[in-house]
Design a protein that fits this description.
mainly alpha; 82% helix
Length: 80
């Protein structure tokens, strides 16, 4: 769990560094400008957030299942 939190904080810091750049200095991307002018950039951001959220939930659920199996293995070792 601590690894996941540290990864998320690292990604947050990285996104802050990337998004915090001065727009005059950053390279303009025509596709992004077109999406922004059409208002579709919000759809792209929403889809990325949904995919990231489901990926994070999948990781958390898998982590819980692995911990449960590890506890079962440990209890079996202790019972012998």
């Amino acid at each position: 769990m601590q690894k996941i939190v540290s990864i998320l904080l690292s990604l947050l810091f990285l996104s802050n560094c990337v998004l915090g750049q001065d727009p005059a200095e950053s390279h303009q991307v025509e596709m992004a400008d077109a999406l922004r002018s059409d208002g579709k950039i919000y759809v792209v951001v929403l889809v990325v957030m949904i995919v990231f959220t489901f990926f994070l939930l999948y990781l958390l659920l898998t982590d819980r299942q692995v911990k449960k199996v590890e506890k079962e293995i440990e209890s079996l070792k202790n019972s012998k």
